[in-house]
Amino acid sequence: MAHALLKGETGDWEMVIGLEVHAQVLTKSKLFSGASADFGAAPNAQVSPIDAGMPGMLPVINKLCIEKAVRTGLGLNAKINMYSVFERKNYFYPDLPQGYQISQYQHPIVGEGIIEIDLPDGSIKKIGIERLHLEQDAGKSLHDQHPSKSYVDLNRSGNPLMEIVSKPDMNSAEEAAAYVTKLRAIVRYLDTCDGNMDEGSMRCDVNLSMRRPGAPLGTRCEIKNVNSIRFVQQAIEYEARRQIEVLEGGGKITQETRLFDTKNGTTRTMRSKEDAHDYRYFPDPDLLPLKLEQAFVDDIKKTLPELPDAKKKRFIDMGLSPYDASVLVAEKERADFYEKVADNNDPKLAANWVTTELAGALNKAGKALHDSPISAEKLGGLLKLIADNTISGKIAKEVFSEMFATGKDAAKIVDEKGLKQVTDTGTIEKLVNEVLAENPDKVAEYKAGKDKMFGFFVGQVLKRSGGKANPAMVNDLLKAKLGS
Amino acid sequence: MSIDINTVRKVAKLARIRTTDAETEVLSGELSKILKMIEQLNEVNTDGVEPMTSVIEMKMPEREDKVTDGGIPEKILANAPEHTAGFFVVPKVVE
Amino acid sequence: MKNLTTLTIKEALIGLKKKEFTAVELTEAHIKAAEAARHLNCYITETFDLARKQAKESDARYAKGTAGLLDGIPVAMKDLFCTEGIQTTAASNILKGFKPPYESTVSANLWRDGATMLGKANLDEFAMGSSNTTSAFGNVINPWRSKNHDKPLVPGGSGGGSAAAVAARIAMGATGTDTGGSIRQPAAFCGIAGIKPTYGRCSRFGIVAFASSLDQAGPTARTSEDCALMLQSMAGYDPKDSTSVNRPVPEYSKSIGQSVKGLKVGVPKEYRIDGTNPEIIKLWEKGVQMMKDAGAEIVDVSLPHTKYALQTYYVIAPAECSSNLARYDGVRFGLRVEGDNLVDTYEKTRAEGFGKEVKRRILIGTYVLSAGYYDAYYNKARSVRKLIWQDFINAYQKCDVLLTPTVPTPAFAIGENMQDPVTMYLNDVFTIPASMAGMPGMSLPVGLSSDGLPLGLQLLGKPFDEETVFKVAHVIEKAANFTALPQSLMSKAA
After folding, report:
1. Is C242 within 8 Å of A60 when comparing Cβ atoms?
2. What is A37-54 written as a DSSP string?
């Protein structure tokens, strides 16, 4: 896709966007303590003395975090660094109990990688990954509970995060949104992060600068804590316009950290470069360097699931349209559901039923896929009844509605309601004869060359059968009787 | 190099320690003396020497992902200068 | 009954086992002595009632025949070890009143083996100091007095309270932590023994951190055998400390009494520095002779980077401390001085909470880590540290153990060496190299200076070879036959 350029007063501008995504590693306990990493507990109920930075407390790393960081790195087609180092990032803030965050700086666990994003026009773009490192989350400060006080809850303090830094390879809000969407799909496929942006398991910082097409990079601003894909787009669109205005007004962009205001969709200055912290990173002397063994990485490689891109390609090879394939693989849950439906069924038919009928019904009922009253197995069962001519496609829709309402098996509904397709030649022939006998004028018209009448006869016969007559047999018999 | 008064102020700010003007001046002298001592390290040739982080030469130990701690909010808050409704309380943070 | 406070730990354990006296009697004797010696200011917090309760339980175990390695032995706990529910201050205003909801691993190990706690021993604030004059709870007084003047002397530091308590017979042993000499230097000043084991030997979990890559716990007591018994209890792998080394703890007391025949004792020439008291040099030579007499072989070795150890230390230790002490911010525990806003509160809290020496070290540490100086100072120091470590590794190709003085001078008067921080830092010039390299080091009382003050020699061992250190220590101890007592005890006896 050609770069989407923004029109300004004085000509075209190009956005340059890089994203830093913080993804909480899906674990039971924290990165360096045995307190629970779950969301939503009472304040300070999931805090160990380690997370509270109490004197003499020491960190011990959670094995699963290492494994999942490597797993994510492999999923991002990235280089796994066999040697990485935890460092301390020093600054004061009430929700940072140790007075430093344990993070990785000079030696991250994962190096450069690449992911492919799917753009709305169906094209694909490669986005570089700069690095992925493990770090501790901070606690949470509440500023709106008291006129002159802030309240601090340390439940989140010490939760394991993967910070995934992209290269500045994106040039539009849509690309940024597609990047986050893809990243989210990948970590969910890998089961390394739940991707739940509402609960803060995935948070996003946006780096954005503007330049004339082909010109060198401009000065960038960092927008902090943009916590939904929609906000990513909003923040980028607002910030790009703001920067163009400044630049076209003859001003300069100052490198700064900005905060996205979700209420009005704008960004505002949080701190300028002059106030930038001097974080005094140094290797954490309470920990040792993290050395991985090749066998450990290889073992993880063996357990990697099929990722969205590979799955999409396979779906297309199965005969699905690229669009349907994209829609299905975007969410692992949907793809898994689809694969169960398609098991021993026609893949295209299964795709249609999942993306159209079921998606439509769920949408109308305001339900998510995991709340679907029709399980994948049951939907597959319905498709099998179509395939073996037990019911027609039309009856199938009726059965589907009943299934959606009651959760019953398709076969049971067909049985109870007597919806089984009529395939008995004698019965159908009787209906054909009746229709032809009752409409001599129409038969005459047909014979005189009005071919369209054929459809009328088919419709009448099917109607008389209550929709249950096998349409192919009706066709054949009519043709024979009408001598055409 | 010496650590002048402005540098002392800057470093004290970073370390969140209030220093009076008189203290700052004394500290400038003391810290400069310490720094002068430290700078004798420049006599040592360290070309090609890997900086040492730990004298321990083993693999970093790892723990299983199990919940073994937490669930003790009253203990966590017991030593706090101020707390309410399960939260630590601090003077308002202004961004 | 004889004075129970004069017994060694070993002797007391035998007495308890033989039911010559009870743990309650032993503990009461020490409580009485401690009450009489309060002017020395050894304890920040006395826990006599706890000690009485523990002693009673100990007697019950002796009755049942289930007594542990140190059952009934009253010890002092340096107030840097967190003790559950008992005030732990690190001798700092910023932690006044802090009651940890957890127990340090080392103290827990001692309780497991039946030791009783008399109190939390005074120290230099956050273990930063060599004279115990930086404590927010007042300085500790050395029970020894000079023959030549009446000025009270420093007990050394940072573990001044621990060492003075053991020397004054108001604790049978004490825990210490050693970052650059905080066990060994006070032991030398107070005429007792003390060992810093190999880094990683004792867990750091629950010890208020000063400099994480250097801090190491160890015991101080009146004999090498007592130190061996205590270390046996204190040491061991701890999964809660990522720098704790997983290897079995030997029965250190078995090293006591073993022959040193054929053992190679290294004498590093670089420890012969200007400004060392000639009496100490003489003592060192005497120590060398003792080893020869015992059949050991003396080997001249070189540790060429020794003279840069102090400088290296004063980059690395402050750098780590500046970060380790960032948690004292008045938010979750300890002192808070309310300010106009959050930053004001932070700055006032830390200004009032920390003493001068601690602030100096935080500031120098912040400086060497800050943008633009990191490579020139911090990385440079880490590289030199590697060379210091390499020196030891090279020396240990030629010898099994090193013999050096512990401190360049005997104990000095309170108020001396205060003119500038660097002069004070020179106290640790012989103890710091082994700290930088993580090697075990032990100080032993070997003789008296002309003004009647104890002088110590230091033994440095190979990593995790505390056994050889104990073996050699006992041989020197026997040869030196150090029986002198602090004047305070002499006068009491008189």
Report:
1. yes
2. --SSPSTTTT--TTTTT-
Q: Which of A463, A27, C62 is nearest to B65 (CA)?
A: A27
Which listed residue (C92, C131, C158, C255) is catalytic? C158
Between A58, A99, A150, which is nearest C323 by CB?
Answer: A99
Residues of chain C found within 8 Å of residue A274, distances taken between Cβ atoms: none
Q: DSSP labels for C249-290?
A: PP-GGGGTT---TT-EEEEEGGG--TT--HHHHHHHHHHHHH
Where helices occur in C296-419 by DSSP H, the ranges are: 309-324, 342-353, 356-369, 380-398
Look up C182 and say whether it is catalytic: yes
Assess A280–C contact: CB distance below 8 Å, yes or no. yes
Q: What is the spatial distance between Cα C479 and Cα C260, in angstroms, rounded to a whole number?
A: 13
Q: Does residue B85 belong to any structural domain of this protein?
A: no
Say what the pLDDT of residue B95 is: 53
Within 8 A of A90 by CB-CB distance, chain C residues are 322-323, 326, 369
Neighbours of chain A (3+ CB pairs under 8 A): B, C
CA separation for the pair B41, A395 (Å, rounded)? 88
Shortest alpha-carbon distance between residue C267 and chain B (Å): 23
pLDDT in tens, chain A (484 residues): 445 788 888 899 999 999 999 999 999 999 999 999 999 899 999 999 999 999 999 999 999 999 999 999 999 999 999 999 999 999 999 999 999 999 999 999 999 999 999 888 888 999 999 999 999 999 999 998 899 999 999 999 999 999 999 999 999 999 999 999 999 999 999 999 999 998 999 999 999 999 999 899 999 999 998 999 999 999 999 999 999 999 999 999 999 999 999 899 999 998 766 666 899 999 999 999 999 999 999 999 999 999 999 999 999 999 999 889 989 998 889 999 999 999 999 999 999 999 999 999 999 999 999 999 999 999 999 999 998 888 888 889 989 999 999 999 998 998 888 788 887 888 888 999 999 999 989 888 888 888 888 889 999 998 888 888 888 888 888 988 887 5
ipTM above 0.95, yes or no: yes
The C-alpha atoms of residue C440 and residue C225 are separated, in whole angstroms, by 16
Q: Where are the domains of chain A?
A: 6-299, 306-417, 425-482
List the domain boundaries for chain C: 4-258+411-493
User: Regarding the domain delimited by C4-258+411-493, which CATH topology (the fold level of the hierarchy) does it fall under?
Assistant: Amidase signature (AS) enzymes (3.90.1300)
Express each pLDDT in C146-172 by its tens digit. 999 999 999 999 999 999 999 999 999
Helix axes B21-38, B5-14, angle to 10 degrees: 90
- What's the total number of domains in chain B? 1
Put simply, whether A158 touches C (Cβ < 8 Å) is no
Active site residue C244: no
Residues 407-426 of A with CB under 8 A from C: none
B80–C368: do the CB atoms touch at under 8 Å?
no
Q: How many CB pairs under 8 A join B and C?
A: 168
Contact C329 A282 (CB under 8 A): no
Is C158 in the active site? yes
Is B64's Cβ below 8 Å from some Cβ in A?
A: yes
How do C216-221 and C173-178 pair as beta strands? antiparallel
B95 domain-assigned = no
The reply to whether B52 falls in a domain is no
CATH architecture entry for A425-482: Orthogonal Bundle (1.10)
Residue A106, burial from CB neighbour count under 10 angstroms (0-12, 13-18, 19+): exposed
CA count, 13 A, side-chain hemisphere, A23: 29
Catalytic residue among C10, C58, C78, C462: C78
Q: Inform me whether the C-beta atom of residue A98 falls under 8 Å from chain C C-beta atoms.
A: yes
C-beta neighbour count of B73 within 10 angstroms: 21
- Structural domain including B28 reads 5-43
Name subunits touching B (3+ CB pairs < 8 A): A, C
Q: Is residue A86 less than 8 Å (CB to CB) from chain C?
A: no
Quick check: is B22 in a domain?
yes
The CATH number for B33's domain is: 1.10.20
